[in-house]
Amino acid sequence: MIAIIAILAAILFPVFAQAKAAAKATAALxxxxxxxxxxxxxxxxxxxxxxxxxxxxxxxxxxxxxxxxCFSTWAVATSPYTKSVALLSDPSGPPNTQVxxxxxxxxxxxxxxxxxxxxxxxxxxxxxxxxVNGVSATSAAAPADTVMLASKWVHNEDQNAxxxxxxxxxxxxxxxxxxxxxxxxxxxAQNCFTxxxxxxxxxxxxxxxxxxxxxxxxxxGNSFRVSGQVAVAxxxxxxxxxxxxxxxxxxxxxxxxxxxSPGGNGAITITSGSKYLWSxxxxxxxxxxxxxxx
Length: 294
What we know:
Blueprint: H1 2-45, E1 54-56, E2 63-64, E3 70-73, H2 74-77, H3 79-82, H4 108-114, E4 118-120, H5 122-125, E5 147-151, E6 166-167, E7 174-175, E8 229-234, E9 239-243, H6 244-247
Antiparallel strand pairs: 1-3, 2-3, 4-5, 5-8, 6-7, 8-9
């Protein structure tokens, strides 16, 4: 009898584990969609403008670096529509442990709005030029093919997790922990973190240092934890999982661990602006500092 039970356990445990992983993946995609809809509801209530990726010194900010340096992320702006910080976590990823910082003090709830499991496409929905500006939803040329949110790394996956990273003027710029990074940003007339590929901000011991490939080491911090796919929510409100190579559609990005190609900043170009999934206008006018084919 004991032998039979052991055999059944050996058969069933992997099945249970797979079922649990599938349930987490389903919950993660559901969270992504709910957050996406919260951004759309925000936009409909605020004159058609998407929320800021990071807002500073609004008078109602939950986290501060110190006097005069307080901030709110897009997750705070949309919280009246979500009602739960639990939606901000990715169940298919590791626990988003709050990391002690000498400069940042946060409660568990405010930490969840800072270090989110899903990042906002700030480069095109809330660009830093050098001040942060939300864009109008009516400017979206192809809402069903434009990223709004994507699953991303969590703060404690950064080897420099005692640091807080941002771009642009301070205060006023975007903080990395609530951001999803587009494939190519070095050609944009704004501040950004990094292009995809080895090197740059997401594989750089001097700044954001992610060393787990599925957490986004070579994909700008976009995580592909479930069957090599990223959970993505789109500007039109739908959500689905796609491979990271699909998420790089419209570029020459073809990184793999063997070839390491293309490399970091400056190596990636837009081969088809109309197919690039991160741009809201779907043309090359935004990419003024580098090659872009419409």
